[in-house]
Amino acid sequence: MSSAMSRAIRACAASGASRRGLASVEAMGAAAKGPPAAGRWAGRGPGGRGKVEDGARVQWVFLGCPGVGKGTYAGRLSRLLGVPHIATGDLVRHELASSGPLSKQLSEIVNHGKLVSDEIIINLLSKRLEEGEGKGELGFILDGFPRTIRQAEILEGVTDIDLVINLKLREEALLAKCVGRRKCSQCGGNFNVASIDIEGENGGPRMYMPPLLPPPQCESKLITRADDTEEVVKERLRVYHDLCEPVEDFYRARGKLLEFNLPGGIPESWPKLLQALNIEDPDNNRSATA
Ligand SMILES: [Zn+2]
């Protein structure tokens, strides 16, 4: 990514992404557009699978509803490919914990349970990309961005996204997973008491996801987030789909969307995801159980 990219993203955010602002960043991006991303990605072929030097060509986006585990898979891929995993949720938390210029504004938004605006997210992202450029980072895996069609348009105008991976999990598994989340009030550890074992769909294999149980010392200290009830989770999913389906359509229309149905937990899903991405895991056994 070029410093032009983060400048353009910032300029776009500053202009409030007016039609004019968008048009000008689109013009900037047009010159840099290469061949269709899916072709470029598929063109890696067996010779150059998942090597670190491929990092330069990884400009990926992870989509997926809350609770699907996209942070986990994006994080694993970023370590494997040697590219930064940039999660907008982390950027927000990092800024909140800092004394940066946006932290006061952010804490007010978050404390009132409001959504962080496109402008703030774009500002944080562009700051992060600039810092990465300074350190010589190549490529990126974005997680949590773009979340809206407007963010997708801004991104499209300034850089070439190679691939958008849309992680999906059957809704009954997703609900059980969200409702089963627990946090230890003492050490902050995250656990999941849901034991998912559901019949396969259309003759497909059974889906089994074991619980992630806490160690004995945490058992009596587990708390459930007030908003992890079935009703709230369903509402969260509905809001996500309303917001994100246009983003999926946007990338589908450009031939960049890879739909990936998670077949179960990490041990089943990780090798299949690598296969779908034509990446060879040099240490498959260890990764699958980590
Ligand atoms: Zn604990």
From TrEMBL:
<keyword id="KW-0808">Transferase</keyword>
<protein>
    <recommendedName>
        <fullName>adenylate kinase</fullName>
        <ecNumber>2.7.4.3</ecNumber>
    </recommendedName>
</protein>
<comment type="function">
    <text>Catalyzes the reversible transfer of the terminal phosphate group between ATP and AMP. Plays an important role in cellular energy homeostasis and in adenine nucleotide metabolism.</text>
</comment>
<dbReference type="InterPro" id="IPR027417">
    <property type="entry name" value="P-loop_NTPase"/>
</dbReference>
<dbReference type="InterPro" id="IPR006259">
    <property type="entry name" value="Adenyl_kin_sub"/>
</dbReference>
<keyword id="KW-0418">Kinase</keyword>
<comment type="similarity">
    <text>Belongs to the adenylate kinase family.</text>
</comment>
<dbReference type="GO" id="GO:0005739">
    <property type="term" value="C:mitochondrion"/>
</dbReference>
<dbReference type="Pfam" id="PF00406">
    <property type="entry name" value="ADK"/>
</dbReference>
<dbReference type="GO" id="GO:0005524">
    <property type="term" value="F:ATP binding"/>
</dbReference>
<dbReference type="InterPro" id="IPR033690">
    <property type="entry name" value="Adenylat_kinase_CS"/>
</dbReference>
<dbReference type="GO" id="GO:0004017">
    <property type="term" value="F:AMP kinase activity"/>
</dbReference>
<dbReference type="GO" id="GO:0005737">
    <property type="term" value="C:cytoplasm"/>
</dbReference>
<dbReference type="InterPro" id="IPR000850">
    <property type="entry name" value="Adenylat/UMP-CMP_kin"/>
</dbReference>
<keyword id="KW-0547">Nucleotide-binding</keyword>
